[in-house]
Design goal:
By secondary structure, the chain is mostly helical. The protein has one domain. Helix content is 63%, strand content 1%. It contains ten helices and two strands, in the order αβαααβαααααα. The chain has a two-stranded antiparallel ribbon with strand order 1-2. Helix 3 packs parallel to helix 5, helix 7 runs antiparallel to helix 8 and helix 8 runs antiparallel to helix 10. The longest helix is centred in the middle third of the chain and has 34 residues. The two termini are 38 Å apart.
Length: 287
C-alpha cells in the first residue's frame, strides 16, 4: 500500500483518542449545541451539512475508480468489493442528501465544525476507496460470498442502517409536528432555526438517548466484519499496525461520537425535568 494510505490510517488512530477526550468537555458548536448568537461564522444547518458530508462519497468513488494511491497495476473489482462499495454509498446517499433534504429545519453549524468535518470526510473517503481497490481487499474478499461471516456482517450493517433511519425519523417527526402546530421558532430568523426540541420516545429511545448513534455503530461494525480482516485488539500498537480502513473508521466513529452522545444525554436531563432517568446515553443498560 502507498505510504499516504498508511499515514492517513495511522493518523486517524493517533488523533481520535485525544480528540475524544477533549470532546467530553467541549461541545462542538452544531445541533443542540449551536451558538446562540448570530455570527458570520454560523452557517445554514441544512446546506452546511450537505456541503460537509458530500466529500466522503465523492472522494470514495474517485479513489475506487482512479486508485491515486495505488500503483498502475491494480486488480479489477470483484463482486464482494462492489457490493460493499454500494453499501457505503447507500449510507452516504441518505446521510449527505436524502436525510438533510427531508428535514424541515436544522440548527446552524459553526464554520469550524464544517471545516473539521470536510477534512475528516475527504481523508476517510480517500482511505476507504483506496482500501477497496487494493490487492489487500481483493485478496481478503476473494470468495467472500461463500463465507458466513461476510453475510453476518452484511446483515448487521442492514439492521444498523434501517435502525438509523427509524430513529432519525422519530426526530424528524418531532420537528415536523412542531412546525405544523406552530411550536417551532420562526424559520425566517436564522438564529431560531431548528431550536425546538422535545423528548423522543419509542423503539430504542425507551432505553438510550442516542439510538441513531448506536445503530450507526452497529452498521459500521457489520461493514468492517464483512470487509476487512479482524485486527488484534489486545494490544493497541498491534491494532495500529494491522487495522485496515473499515476498522479504522469504526474506531474513529465510536471515539468521536461517544462524547457527543454523553454530553447530549446530560443536556436532555438538564433541559427536561420529566426526562426518563432510567435512560442511558448510547449503550442500553451500560452508558
Amino acid at each position: 500500500m502507498h505510504p499516504a494510505y498508511d499515514l492517513i490510517r495511522k493518523g486517524f488512530l493517533s488523533v481520535t483518542p485525544p480528540t475524544s477526550l477533549v470532546l467530553f468537555f467541549v461541545d462542538a458548536p452544531f445541533g443542540r449545541f449551536s451558538l446562540s448568537k448570530e455570527s458570520i461564522f454560523s452557517l445554514n444547518g441544512i446546506k452546511s451539512w450537505i456541503f460537509m458530508e458530500i466529500p466522503s462519497p465523492t472522494i470514495f468513488i474517485y479513489a475506487l475508480i482512479k486508485a491515486p494511491l495505488l500503483g498502475p497495476e491494480v486488480p479489477s473489482l470483484s463482486g464482494p468489493q462492489l457490493f460493499l462499495a454500494a453499501l457505503y454509498l447507500l449510507h452516504y446517499a441518505n446521510r449527505a442528501l436524502i436525510s438533510p433534504l427531508r428535514t424541515p429545519s436544522r440548527s446552524r453549524s459553526h464554520v469550524s465544525v464544517v471545516f473539521c468535518a470536510i477534512c475528516f470526510n475527504v481523508l476517510n473517503g480517500l482511505m476507504m476507496g483506496t482500501y477497496f481497490r487494493s490487492s489487500i481487499a481483493h485478496s481478503f474478499l476473494s470468495g467472500a460470498f461463500a463465507r458466513p461471516l461476510f453475510w453476518t456482517g452484511a446483515l448487521l450493517w442492514l439492521a444498523g442502517f434501517f435502525g438509523n433511519l427509524l430513529h432519525d425519523e422519530v426526530l424528524l417527526n418531532i420537528r415536523r409536528n412542531a412546525k405544523i402546530k406552530g411550536k417551532a421558532k420562526d424559520e425566517g430568523n436564522p438564529k431560531k432555526q431548528g431550536e425546538y426540541y422535545a423528548i423522543p420516545r419509542g423503539y430504542l429511545y425507551e432505553y438510550i438517548s442516542y439510538p441513531n448513534y448506536f445503530c450507526e455503530w452497529l452498521e459500521w461494525l457489520g461493514f468492517a466484519l464483512a470487509a476487512a480482516p479482524l485486527p488484534p485488539v489486545m494490544s493497541f500498537s498491534a491494532f495500529v499496525q494491522s487495522a485496515q480502513a473499515p476498522w479504522v473508521f469504526v474506531f474513529s466513529e465510536v471515539l468521536l461520537m461517544l462524547p457527543r452522545a454523553y454530553r447530549g444525554h446530560q443536556w436532555y436531563l438538564g433541559k427536561f425535568s420529566d426526562y426518563p432517568k432510567e435512560r442511558k446515553a448510547v449503550l442500553p443498560f451500560i452508558i
